[in-house]
Specification:
The complex is a heterodimer of chains A (about 120) and B (about 325). Chain A has about 120 residues and is mostly beta strands. Chain A has one domain: Immunoglobulin-like (Sandwich). Chain A contains 1 helix and 8 strands, in the order H-E-E-E-E-E-E-E-E. In chain A, the strands form 2 sheets. In chain A, strands 1-3-6-5 form a 4-stranded antiparallel beta sheet, with no helix packed on it. In chain A, strands 2-8-7-4 form a 4-stranded mixed beta sheet, with no helix packed on it. The longest helix of chain A is centred in the first third of the chain and has 14 residues. Chain B has about 325 residues and is mostly beta strands. Chain B has one domain: monomeric porin ompg (Porin), CATH 2.40.160.40. Helix content of chain B is about 10%, strand content about 50%. In chain B, the strands form 3 sheets. A 12-stranded antiparallel barrel of chain B has the order 3-4-5-7-8-9-10-13-14-15-16-17. A two-stranded antiparallel ribbon of chain B has the order 1-2. Chain B has a two-stranded antiparallel ribbon with strand order 11-12. Chain B is globular and about 60 Å long. Classes of the chains: A mainly beta (about 120), B mainly beta (about 325). Chains A and B meet through helix 1, strand 1, strand 4, strand 7 and strand 8 of A and strand 3, helix 2, strand 17 and helix 4 of B.
Chain lengths: ~120, ~325
């Protein structure tokens, strides 16, 4: 029992000691995931909880017909990835992303947001 | 050995299986993260450590005995798709008259192979062979057997994120399941003068991922703590199906409602254990676990497969 307690304590201390990297989870986005915005955004920004490898991190924004509306290569700074978008008329848009965190773990996801009154 | 103690030990075995027979892998399938479940297994191989898993419950005896189980398990990928787990469980049973029985169960290992990970459909399938090695625990106390148990097992996990967007919040649900056929290496236990049945060991989970809801469906602006929670209901059962002469073919197990908090490097789970019938226990027990993601904590050393490494990072292709 004492060994178990010591081992658990040591591992907890290790865990909370502050590791550099892990899987990158999407913390939040602008426009917000699943939101409806009145004013069309000029860019989509994703905020992750880990720093990203720019060479292997990508984002695509497409309209309801599947046509891409983003302006190509994203800009990545630490854990933030942003991409400009073309003027967006009212409608629902899908954001698909895939990122590589600094420790080489890949994560991916997609979500929608709506532009309209 | 008294009949009551034998009964207690048999039930202890059920709880011990619930505590240690699972690889508890760090499981990403596409956008879906399936947490390490406490009473059943998730459908992925990974590098992880569960320490400790603690369960407290009351047995189905008359009067019931109190049982405490403390276990640990480490899972290690040998290749990207093949992993091995080693687990050990310590049990303490206190009868109503104060009689105490303590000791280790048999050492348990699991050999698992990842058959499928379908990112698009959030589907994972895993095959495994669980072996409880006879004579590796406290056979003198009756908590471990002289014979081994071999259990070929199939696991699956499925997230519902591929449903049409009209399903909205429902897409944050996921299910996991497993079914195994447990074969003892002997048909008769002379120490207990009883047949050793072959059993189907099965279970699963229904889970609702708040992280998935926030990052894939709708960000409600909830407190950060809430966004890390995965409410879950697990079901862990076993049913004798053969070589059970003279005994009832009663299904035993528990239904476990609870919640798992998921962090970047570890998760913490807490569940109630509700017996499915009187033979499975008395009243509500508790199951808790601290689970560490070794692949995230030590990504360049023990968090890697021993051979072959992981797949090269891939460019995003839509």
């Amino acid at each position: 029992m004492r060994i178990l307690t010591l081992a658990t304590t040591a591992l907890l201390a290790l865990t909370t000691a502050g590791f550099a990297h892990a899987h990158a989870f999407l913390d939040h986005a602008e426009p917000r995931v699943g939101s409806k915005v009145a004013a069309a955004p000029t860019e989509v920004v994703l905020f992750f909880n880990q720093n990203l490898e720019a060479a292997f991190s990508s984002i695509e924004v497409s309209d309801a017909n599947g046509a891409r509306v983003d302006q190509g290569k994203p800009r990545i700074n630490a854990g933030t990835m942003r991409v400009g978008v073309k003027p967006l008329p009212s409608g629902t848009y899908k954001v698909r992303w895939q990122v590589l965190s600094k420790d080489t773990h890949t994560t991916e996801g997609n979500f929608s947001f709506t532009v309209g009154p | 050995m008294s009949r009551r103690l034998l009964h207690s030990i048999a039930l202890a075995g059920i709880v011990a299986v619930a505590c240690t027979s699972h690889a508890l892998a760090h499981c990403f399938v596409g956008a879906r993260f399936l947490p390490a479940t406490l009473a059943t297994d998730d459908p992925c191989v990974a590098d992880e450590l569960s320490l400790p898993t603690v369960a407290w419950s009351k047995t189905g005896d008359f009067p019931p005995a109190s049982e405490l189980d403390i276990s640990g398990e480490i899972s290690k990928r040998i290749t990207e798709n093949f992993g091995v787990s080693i687990g050990q469980n310590w049990t303490s049973i206190r009868q109503a008259d104060g009689t105490l029985t303590q000791g280790f169960n048999n050492l348990e290992t699991a050999f698992q192979y990842q058959i499928l990970k379908d990112r698009e459909h959030e589907l994972a399938i895993l095959s495994g062979l669980i072996v409880d090695w006879g004579r590796t625990g406290s056979t003198g106390s009756g908590l471990a057997t002289n014979y081994s148990l071999v259990t070929p097992t199939l696991y699956f996990g499925k997230g519902f994120g591929d449903l049409p967007s009209s399903f909205s919040w429902f897409r944050a649900f996921a299910v996991t399941g497993q079914v195994g056929y447990q074969i003892p290496t002997t048909s008769f236990d002379f120490t207990q003068n009883a047949f050793v049945p072959q059993q189907i060991v099965y279970g699963g989970s229904l889970q609702y991922s708040m992280p998935y809801l926030k990052s894939e469906i709708i960000d409600l602006g909830l407190p950060d703590f809430i966004n890390h929670l995965i409410p879950i209901v697990e079901l862990s059962l076993s049913t004798p199906v053969a070589n059970n002469f003279g005994n009832p073919y009663t299904t035993t197990g528990t239904v476990n409602p609870g919640v798992i908090w998921v962090g970047s490097y570890f998760q913490v789970g807490l569940e109630a254990m509700i017996p499915v019938n009187r033979a499975s226990g008395t009243g509500v027990g508790v199951l808790g676990q601290l689970h560490l993601y070794l692949d995230d904590m030590f990504p360049s050393t023990i968090g890697q497969p021993l051979f072959g490494g992981t797949s090269s990072p891939r460019k995003l292709t839509f």
